[in-house]
Amino acid sequence: MLGFITKNLNDIIYLSLLLFSVFIGPYYRKLDTIEAKKWAGSILGILLIIIVSGNSAALLIMSGLMGISIIKLDTIKRCHVTTFFFMFGYLFVFRIGDKFGLPAPTGQTNLIEMIIVLRVVGVAFEMNGSWLAISKDKKKETDVPEAEIKTLKEKDDEFNELINPEFIDLFHYTFNYIGLLTGPYYRYRTFDDYFHLPFSKHVDCFGFTINTLKIVPLYISLYLAFSNIWPLEYILTEEHNNRHFLYRMMYPWVLFAAFRQRIYSGMTLAESVCTSAGLGAYPVQGRNRTGHGPTVGYLKLKKMSEEEAKMTEYDFKTVESMEVWGCETVVTLRDSMKVWNKAVQYWVAMVVYKRFPVKSLKVHAALFVSVIWHGFHAGYFFCIYFCPFYLMAEDIYYKLYYKEATGMKKKIIGFIMWFLRSHSESYQAAAFLLLTFDRIWIYYSSVYHYWYGVWLAFLILGLILSKVHAMLRPKRQGVSRTEVVNE
């Protein structure tokens, strides 16, 4: 028992702090004034940083302060660009700081810095986006390129308020304890609404929190079971290499299963921190989306009276990071990516994909930023950057066989695609977990790098089948027309 505690001490401390953050939520929510809430949230956040990071805490706090200083010192027209490059440059130096005599960041410390980067860069883009939206409404074509405005069109066309918070408000947003340890990412608009709109007073925070938390013990138990029965390091041993090829091929399934349980438990606890405090609660009629919040009728929601707020139905989809059932059951990798860590996916989409100026490179830019945000290890590149190659083949088979299928045929094809998707994710996850190139090479060599060959074969075969179907389709349509005429 003592050995287990020593081995997992950092994770135990981190888990305890998450549970503390959940527990403190109802008391935080009941603080009397907005200023008291903001300062209490920031002080709690800084205390969490100090407890988790120790000697590295000053570096984390300094990164947030410098980032929001750049936002305020630069113009709203370009602060998003300067902030983006500064924060990611700081993140790079922070991670290699041990080479210059700085404290080496732990995994938990690195995760907090990652969240700070999302918040500071995200709010800079949010401010610039609101300015562009206002410029669009006022038709200031001379100041704002039309092409840049078109890329910012969102579902909520009613939203046309300028977001330009003061330095102290940016400070509170950056360091508030809610979501600071492991997410989820939420916009500054969501943070500001939390203090000024009545929704958190009337939503059933306790009910939502209990409903979210009740499955966490299962995730933790499964993680401990999988990681102890099938440890990661075993994949690098000679004993593993001497096992049957099928065993070696399927071993990443249990590694990825253990990893998923860990992520599920962490993300679910993080969501519970939000639900406990009431942050992210919006009326369901806003058709709320992870990260974004209400997508329709936002200004109407802002004008909702206290009486209406008491009677309305709420959800916390704005701070929902994971759709666990979807992660386990969806058929395609494309759909799996949509339900995995949705808050970060939203950030990447809004900050990188929709804003990147070269259309043909949007996907590559989004993937590259996602990789360097996670870290600079080879495993992140192997895992994230190879997704498009599988998607190319998957999309072909989806359109040819699954999309129009019905009944038992659809179920059988769906199971095959689910198996291939799950196997591909597991193969890539092995690289994500092994991290360094030499460790990845040991495992991939033990299975002869077979999955890349399978991908290539699937893609070539899919392209051929797609051509054949395209050639046969006119003939089939011609036969159908002939039969109709004859009848």
UniProtKB/TrEMBL annotation:
Q: Which GO terms describe its cellular component?
A: membrane; mitochondria-associated endoplasmic reticulum membrane contact site
Q: Which GO terms describe its molecular function?
A: lysophospholipid acyltransferase activity
Is Coiled coil there in the keyword field? no
Q: In which pathway does it act?
A: Lipid metabolism; phospholipid metabolism; Phospholipid metabolism
Q: Which compartments is it annotated to reside in?
A: Membrane
Please give the start and end residues of each transmembrane region. 12-28, 40-67, 79-96, 116-134, 365-391, 412-437, 449-466
The protein's UniProt keywords, in alphabetical order, are: Acyltransferase, Membrane, Transferase, Transmembrane, Transmembrane helix
Coarse class of the primary localization is: membrane
Q: Name one Pfam family in it.
A: MBOAT
Q: How does it sit in the membrane?
A: Multi-pass membrane protein
Family affiliation: Belongs to the membrane-bound acyltransferase family.
Q: What is this protein called?
A: Lysophospholipid acyltransferase 7
Originating organism: Euphydryas editha (Edith's checkerspot)
